[in-house]
């Protein structure tokens, strides 16, 4: 984000500190603090960001059961391999647990990349990211490779999504 700002970007995508990291955007407070006093100073006040973050930190506790922190303890770069959007990542993990596939989540993430290619390397936003996720879980649940899906497409009973 710093390099984007240095290259002339007017806007970068960040998240309030308490909602940042993991599968989300980088910390707003960290970016504001790192640019303070430079020619790229945002003009935002760090104490205001901290107050705002504190509010959302409390609110976030209500959603704790749905977060991916059960298995994910830090951000990782595998998004460059599987292209799972942040919101879909947490949903996909929750769905995997619901289907009894929690121990196969690494395989589901790899299948997500394959399913995306099978579906035409689509733009992944809601609901298209869910379609890719559903196909990935279907592939893992039924022990299907991308080649199996292509070869047996006429006989498979795909997820309704």
UniProtKB/TrEMBL annotation:
Superkingdom: Eukaryota
One term of GO molecular function: pyruvate carboxylase activity
Pfam family, one: PYC_OADA
Residue span(s) of domain Pyruvate carboxyltransferase: 1-50
One cellular-component annotation, GO: cytoplasm
SUPFAM superfamilies recorded: Aldolase, post-HMGL domain-like
Entry-linked Gene3D superfamilies: Aldolase class I (3.20.20.70)
Protein name per its UniProtKB record: Pyruvate carboxyltransferase domain-containing protein
UniProt organism field: Oppiella nova
């Amino acid at each position: 984000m710093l390099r984007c700002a240095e290259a002339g970007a007017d806007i970068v995508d960040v998240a309030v500190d308490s909602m940042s990291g993991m599968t989300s955007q980088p910390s707003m407070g960290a970016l504001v603090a790192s640019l303070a006093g430079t020619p790229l100073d945002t003009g935002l006040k760090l104490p205001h960001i901290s107050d705002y973050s504190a509010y959302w930190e409390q609110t976030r506790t209500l959603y704790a059961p749905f977060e991916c922190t059960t298995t994910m303890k830090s951000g990782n770069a595998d998004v460059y391999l599987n292209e799972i959007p942040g919101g879909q990542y947490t949903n996909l993990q929750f769905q995997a647990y619901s289907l009894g596939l929690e121990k196969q989540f690494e395989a589901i993430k790899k299948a997500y990349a394959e399913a995306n290619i099978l579906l035409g390397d689509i733009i992944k936003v809601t609901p298209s990211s869910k379609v890719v996720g559903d196909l990935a879980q279907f592939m893992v649940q039924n022990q299907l490779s991308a080649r199996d899906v292509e070869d047996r497409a006429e006989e498979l009973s795909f997820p309704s999504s």
